[in-house]
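Worked example 2:
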Amino acid sequence: MTHALTRLLRFDRPSDAVYIELVDALFSLVPPMVFLAISVGAIGTAIFVRTGDWLVIGLTTAILLVTGERILMALRYRRTRAAGPLSFAAAQDWERQFAARSFITTSILGTMGAWCFTLPYPKIHMLMVGMLFAYAAGTVTRVAYRPRLAILNLLILSIPSMIACLFIGGTVYLCLAFLIVIFLLGGFETVQHLYATIVSQLTLKLRFAGLARRDALTGLSNRLALNENLETIVAAASVEGRPLAIHSLDLDNFKQANDRFGHPVGDAVLREVAKRLSWLTRENDMLVRLGGDEFVLVQADVKSREQALALATRIIREIATTYQINDNTIQLGTSVGIAMMMPDQPVTADELLDRADQALYQAKRTGSGFAVHAVAPQLVPPLMDGSDIDDARKTVNSN
């Protein structure tokens, strides 16, 4: 028996991303909790009116209070979820909170069911059988996202009533105890099947979502991923007081090489460029291919302006290295536009991208290699209007 129960409680661990989705699904249960409160309230009141049993009304009140708190917890979760992505550790904490309240609710309802079976009113027994089986069915179908939680709830709910039926004895109640056992076994199998199906579907969903956010040619993040994540990155850097730099670049002479050697060679060049840029990208940076020969590198945790300039210099040097593709020697260059967000100059994600594009345009027109746009003016500054352009030219020419 112990071995069989252990087998029933053994489930494959999902990936962290799938686990977060499973926990998220638990907190979509607000309507069923409302229906539970209404049903328990109505049945508990009816039983109290018929029997005058204060324990029944006390257990009913306890269930209503716990259910109300569970609904408030679900609303708190939704506000937290709306504020940003959920980490794995946070998902574990929310699941523990959900499980504790779920076990309390199930324990009270199981106790209420067992107590009602001791009352000498067959019609009340019928009401409780309906209530218990309805709650168990809801647990099987709605909490299968977390199978151990579902199975333990089924055991907590069913065992007291099953013991009460065995204690009462008689053909009808013995048959009812037997049906509870059969329902439990069937419920366990159903939970296992539903869990495996849900995990499989979520895994495929996240895999396809990941593909939708990847550039098919280079494997880098694409424009959709940038649009979805940049605002969060900028907001986090602003809150934590960390500088942030965005490097916007495109390739010089790529169109000529693509026309001369053909698209397969051009695609191979783009893959090689992506590989070289990846060498320069840290784990917390974000590298994006926007399309064509346009790339964006979001440099996080920038310690100083000089660190951003140093990265731009390395990008220019790395891209300028000769490419050998199918016995063809190809020489490219690049220009880089840098937009910096300083802790005392908060800007939006769209403003940063616009500034990086303006700086790229300026770098290409001046042939300076790279240009920096780190101040408030929204218009492109005059071409020879400050030290940024001169510094950039000197840095690039000296290498």
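The chain has a mean pLDDT of 82. The chain is about 70% helix and 10% strand.
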